[in-house]
Automatic annotation (TrEMBL):
Residues 264-345 form the CR-type domain. Residues 104-168 form the J domain. The lineage of its organism: Eukaryota, Fungi, Dikarya, Ascomycota, Pezizomycotina. The keyword Mitochondrion applies. This is DnaJ homolog 1, mitochondrial. Keywords: Chaperone, Metal-binding, Mitochondrion, Repeat, Transit peptide, Zinc, Zinc-finger. Pfam families: DnaJ (PF00226), DnaJ_C (PF01556), DnaJ_CXXCXGXG (PF00684). Its main location: mitochondrion. GO terms for molecular function: ATP binding; heat shock protein binding; unfolded protein binding; zinc ion binding. Gene3D superfamilies: DnaJ domain, Heat shock protein DnaJ, cysteine-rich domain, Urease metallochaperone UreE, N-terminal domain. It is found in: Mitochondrion. SUPFAM superfamilies: Chaperone J-domain (SSF46565), DnaJ/Hsp40 cysteine-rich domain (SSF57938), HSP40/DnaJ peptide-binding domain (SSF49493). CDD domains: DnaJ, DnaJ_C. GO terms for biological process: protein refolding; response to heat.
Length: 509
């Protein structure tokens, strides 16, 4: 599939996703009417985005939001104008109470009152995926989807959850608070499920819902646009995976010989990673101290920034790491100074496989730094240390060189062996072997000994490289009288008239 085809497919998928999100819960309007009209409204923008290649994530989802938000109001007027011709004019768009005495949010989501926030998110995500009107064909799918969504919005808000736990459904009846009699008993402060008088109303602010779902997080969860590193703190987005804090990786250098690189070896190395503070168990707090609400983000974990066009952009609070809670003044653990980690020197054994090359990096899982949890401590979060990367330095060898998995060796042979041929001993990584020298061998001639090289790493076919032997003929610089006589006689036998004669002058020429 071409890149353009992938973009078209993805864009159409995003369009359907936004339409389903914005049209499912508009009160008083049939779902099919919502979807058909909204698709008509959004399609021109989708085509324009594809034409102009508007694949900037933030720009794309903001403009989609604008189209959907304006479309929702037009949709309200359009449907009212049609339905007004068939039935009496509506006096109010207020919805009926979201929860009745029998609609216990814990029962709807299938969780207990002691369930953690992560368990509530997981339960809601499963129900939302199961009963989404676009995928579920059951007749009551829309109602179950709405119930799950409303239940999650209530339980994800600490104040509303506490109210329900204390007073039960009575606190959310039509004639009771906190929903208010004028707003139809909606516990979210508005007639719509997102807290506004319309389908989104005042509950829709820039890029996030009042129900605690950050729209940018929701968008990235469907498009795969997550950045590296740990996820944003304080978000109640049920579409995200479980939060895991991962520590930074560290590096160490190890020097080995050429033969150790060929055979593999084990080395002891000393490292100094950060480990979880045992005094505070990583919380960064003194014993008996508790965290306080972050003053910079008012406990939300995010900070809002206004951008051009009247939109808002949410970013993780850099003071609390997105947790909404900070360590109070003078409440830091003295051992780790509130970081949650301390340095610890230790020695470990590292197995270096055969065939490693100079400059290669080996990874040892879980031997890096533990994450700094003091500024972002969450009892529901999991943490794991980073990795240890070992940089291999292979020393040069006086006999061998290397080219990939092949070992190179230069064999020096006497002139007479080169002329007459013979047999020599050649060193290998496993000892010496006998190698035959052909008659008339010259400097630069090569032979290959299969399978006597380095072990191959990272290739589909395992095995070893080869030992490539290059011959170098040793020429004598000085000759004795007898040696010169013999060589001059050889020149005469070979018909060499250019060789200089000293001993057999009469035969020259």
């Amino acid at each position: 599939m071409s890149k353009l085809s992938i973009q078209r497919f993805t864009l159409q998928k995003h369009k359907a996703f936004y339409v389903s999100i914005y049209t499912t819960m508009i009160p008083g309007i049939p779902y099919t009417f919502n979807q058909a009209s909204m698709v008509t409204r959004i399609t021109p923008f989708v085509r324009l985005s594809r034409k102009q290649n508007l694949w900037n994530e933030i720009i794309f989802h903001r403009n989609i939001q604008t189209s959907c938000r304006s479309a929702s109001h037009l949709l309200r007027r359009k449907y009212d104008s049609i339905s007004g011709q068939l039935q009496p004019q509506r006096q109010s768009f207020h919805s009926s109470p979201i929860f009745h005495a029998t609609k216990d949010p814990y029962v709807v989501l299938g969780v207990s009152k002691g369930a953690s926030a992560a368990d509530i998110k997981k339960a809601y995500y499963g129900l939302a995926k199961k009963f989404h009107p676009d995928t579920c064909k059951e007749p009551d799918a829309k109602d179950k989807f709405a119930e799950a969504q409303s239940a999650y919005e209530l339980l994800s808000d600490p104040q509303k959850k506490a109210t329900w736990d204390q007073y039960g459904a009575a606190a959310f009846d039509q004639d009771s608070s906190p929903g208010g009699a004028n707003m139809g008993g909606n516990p979210f402060g508005g007639a719509g499920p997102f807290g506004g008088a319309g389908p989104f109303g005042a509950g829709f602010r820039g890029a996030e819902f009042t129900g605690g779902i950050n729209f940018e997080d929701l968008f990235r969860s469907f498009t795969g646009g997550t950045a590296g590193g740990r996820r944003q703190r304080g978000s109640q987005n049920p579409f995200e995976q479980e939060e895991v804090l991962i520590g930074e990786s560290i590096e160490a250098n190890v020097s080995i010989s050429f033969v150790e690189a060929a055979k593999g070896t084990s080395k002891k190395i000393t490292i100094n990673p950060c480990i979880t503070c045992k005094t505070c168990s990583g919380s960064g707090l003194k014993q008996g101290m508790k965290r306080s609400k972050c003053k910079h983000c008012e406990g939300t974990g995010t900070r809002l920034h206004f951008v051009s066009g009247g939109f808002q952009m949410a970013s993780t609070c850099n003071m609390c790491g997105g947790q909404g809670m900070t360590i109070p003044k003078n409440g830091e653990c003295r051992t780790c100074s509130g970081e949650g980690v301390v340095r610890h020197r230790k020695t470990i054994d590292v197995d270096i496989p055969a065939g490693v090359e100079d400059g290669m990096r080996l990874r040892v899982d879980g031997e890096g730094n533990s994450p700094i949890t003091g500024t972002a401590f969450n009892s529901n979060s999991k943490s794991q240390p980073g990795d240890l990367y070992i940089l291999i330095n292979v020393a040069t060898d006086p006999k061998f060189k290397r080219s990939g998995a092949d070992v190179l060796y230069t064999a020096t042979i006497p002139l007479t062996t080169a002329l007459l041929g013979g047999e020599i001993k050649v060193p290998t990584l496993d000892g010496e072997v006998n190698v035959k020298v052909a008659t008339g061998t010259s400097t630069g001639d090569k032979i290959t000994l299969s399978g006597l090289g380095m072990k191959k790493i990272g290739e589909r076919r395992s095995g070893n490289g080869n030992l490539r032997v290059e011959f170098k003929v040793s020429m004598p610089k000085y000759l004795s009288a007898n040696q010169r006589t013999v060589v001059e006689m050889l020149a005469d036998e070979l018909g060499d008239r250019t060789a200089r004669r000293i001993m057999n002058v009469g035969r020259n020429g």
